[in-house]
Amino acid sequence: MTEDQEIEKNLKDLDDICDECKEQDESVSQNLILTGFKLCKSCRISKTIFPI
C-alpha cells in the first residue's frame, strides 16, 4: 500500500459519521481520537449507560 492510499484510508475514518446511528456529528471525530470508536455524543452516552 502506498503512502497516498494510506492517507486516503485515514481520511475516510474522519468523515464525522457515527457507526451506530449513521448521522453526521462533530463529536464523532473527537470521540474517535479519545476512545478509538466512531460514536457521536448521544450514542457514546447510551453505550455508557446501557453497555449491552
Could you characterize the architecture of this molecule?
The protein contains 3 helices and no strands. With 52 residues, the protein is an all-alpha fold. The chain has one domain. The termini are far apart.
When the domains are counted, the total is 1
The portion of residues forming beta strands comes to: under 5%
Mean pLDDT: 86
Q: Which class of secondary structure composition applies to the elements?
A: mainly alpha
Number of helices: 3
Distance between the termini: 36 Å
Explain briefly what this protein structure is.
The chain has one domain. Helix content is 56%, strand content 0%.
What is the strand and helix layout of this fold?
Blueprint: H1 3-13, H2 27-35, H3 41-49
Task: Describe this protein with a few key phrases.
52 residues; 3 helices; mainly alpha; elongated
